[in-house]
Amino acid sequence: MSKKVVLVTGANSGIGLALCERLLTHSDQIHLCLACRNMQRAEAARTALHTSHPGADISLLKVDIGSLQSVLEASKEIKQRYKKVDYLYLNAGIMPNPQISLKAFVTGLFSRKVISMFATGEGLLTQQDRVTADGLQEVFVTNVFGHFIMIRELEPLLCQPGNTSQLIWTSSSNARSSAFRLDDYQHTQGVEPYSSSKYASDLLSVALNRHYNKQGLYSSVICPGLVMTNLTYGILPSFFWTLIMPIMWLIRIFTNTFTLTAYNGAEALFWLFNQKPESLDPRAKYHSYTSGLGNGYTKPQKMDLDEDTAETFYEKLLELEGRVRDKHRAQEDRR
Ligand SMILES: NC(=O)c1ccc[n+]([C@@H]2O[C@H](COP(=O)([O-])OP(=O)(O)OC[C@H]3O[C@@H](n4cnc5c(N)ncnc54)[C@H](OP(=O)(O)O)[C@@H]3O)[C@@H](O)[C@H]2O)c1
């Protein structure tokens, strides 16, 4: 039996790294490819994984998902290395310069919405986006479009006759339709690019199922819950987190969305690894939950979206892909 090829973007820290740990504990019949932008951090992650799993089959791949050139080069490298990709975890993500509304935070802290405020960041969080060298919004490219280009590039490896493959997106419960607009899907005008990008990944997953299921490729989205990682530590000063951490652990006893540890946050990503993709609901988001006793479990929840919007968004992404590729080719020709 040939090993399953599992590629994880953003594998060097947080939820991605915890997923890798869990996969290696579960099976020695996998080849794990850590797709990261920083090779020092990637190497450190591999060393940590080898410490707990000596002899594990792990390779590194350099990719900056926010750069078209880098995604194209990395995809070429993957096609040279592998004949197929069984699992593609689209996990890398950013929430740059998060600003918290202190007023909303204090009001929320003493309201009945306190748990959902922490769990989704609704009404609380804004971010400052920027434009990349490719002329695209950075949050949109990193969280959605770079991954989309990678999927398109890897189509021959993901759509192998007689083999099913899975795309698994780390989305969020912060994905809200109110933050997303089809006529501004990169979120150039708003202040919630993160929420918009996560909603966009949900829409894209639904559309990908429609277009690729017949070729044996299935897409799912998950929400890891609230997890303490570099991403969340960027939201508030670290002393503040230390201060409220006892409250967070207390809340966790009463709410299942406070997964808190990266291990528990990776629950749904890991659960999906063991599912028959044909049996999954393309309109469900799979949530990592943690019980009051600290045990992880996965539960699906129907997503708030419609297929027509998903399809229109997909067409817009194809158009953008065409434009970006043309521009890139023209730049290459000039060199
Ligand atoms: N933590 C939460 O509560 C939470 C909740 C909902 C959803 N999520 C999602 O979970 C996913 C993982 O985040 P995390 O919480 O585990 O945070 P994290 O520890 O910061 O992990 C993010 C990973 O993405 C990588 N990454 C960022 N930009 C990249 C780029 N341009 N190219 C390649 N890799 C890039 C980071 O690499 P570097 O180390 O080089 O920066 C890192 O490995 C993200 O998609 C996030 O949106 C997290």
UniProtKB/TrEMBL annotation:
<dbReference type="Pfam" id="PF00106">
    <property type="entry name" value="adh_short"/>
</dbReference>
<keyword id="KW-0812">Transmembrane</keyword>
<dbReference type="GO" id="GO:0006695">
    <property type="term" value="P:cholesterol biosynthetic process"/>
</dbReference>
<keyword id="KW-0560">Oxidoreductase</keyword>
<dbReference type="GO" id="GO:0047024">
    <property type="term" value="F:5-alpha-androstane-3-beta,17-beta-diol dehydrogenase (NADP+) activity"/>
</dbReference>
<dbReference type="InterPro" id="IPR042829">
    <property type="entry name" value="HSD17B7/Erg27"/>
</dbReference>
<comment type="pathway">
    <text>Steroid biosynthesis; estrogen biosynthesis.</text>
</comment>
<keyword id="KW-0520">NAD</keyword>
<keyword id="KW-0752">Steroid biosynthesis</keyword>
<dbReference type="GO" id="GO:0005789">
    <property type="term" value="C:endoplasmic reticulum membrane"/>
</dbReference>
<keyword id="KW-0472">Membrane</keyword>
<keyword id="KW-1133">Transmembrane helix</keyword>
<dbReference type="GO" id="GO:0004303">
    <property type="term" value="F:estradiol 17-beta-dehydrogenase [NAD(P)+] activity"/>
</dbReference>
<dbReference type="InterPro" id="IPR002347">
    <property type="entry name" value="SDR_fam"/>
</dbReference>
<feature type="transmembrane region" description="Helical">
    <location>
        <begin position="231"/>
        <end position="251"/>
    </location>
</feature>
<dbReference type="GO" id="GO:0006703">
    <property type="term" value="P:estrogen biosynthetic process"/>
</dbReference>
<protein>
    <recommendedName>
        <fullName>3-keto-steroid reductase/17-beta-hydroxysteroid dehydrogenase 7</fullName>
        <ecNumber>1.1.1.210</ecNumber>
        <ecNumber>1.1.1.270</ecNumber>
        <ecNumber>1.1.1.62</ecNumber>
    </recommendedName>
</protein>
<keyword id="KW-0443">Lipid metabolism</keyword>
<dbReference type="InterPro" id="IPR052834">
    <property type="entry name" value="3KSR/17beta-HSD"/>
</dbReference>
<keyword id="KW-0256">Endoplasmic reticulum</keyword>
<comment type="similarity">
    <text>Belongs to the short-chain dehydrogenases/reductases (SDR) family. ERG27 subfamily.</text>
</comment>
<keyword id="KW-0325">Glycoprotein</keyword>
<keyword id="KW-0521">NADP</keyword>
<keyword id="KW-0444">Lipid biosynthesis</keyword>
<dbReference type="GO" id="GO:0000253">
    <property type="term" value="F:3-beta-hydroxysteroid 3-dehydrogenase (NADP+) activity"/>
</dbReference>
<dbReference type="InterPro" id="IPR036291">
    <property type="entry name" value="NAD(P)-bd_dom_sf"/>
</dbReference>
<comment type="pathway">
    <text>Steroid biosynthesis; zymosterol biosynthesis; zymosterol from lanosterol: step 5/6.</text>
</comment>
<comment type="subunit">
    <text>Binds to the short form of prolactin receptor.</text>
</comment>
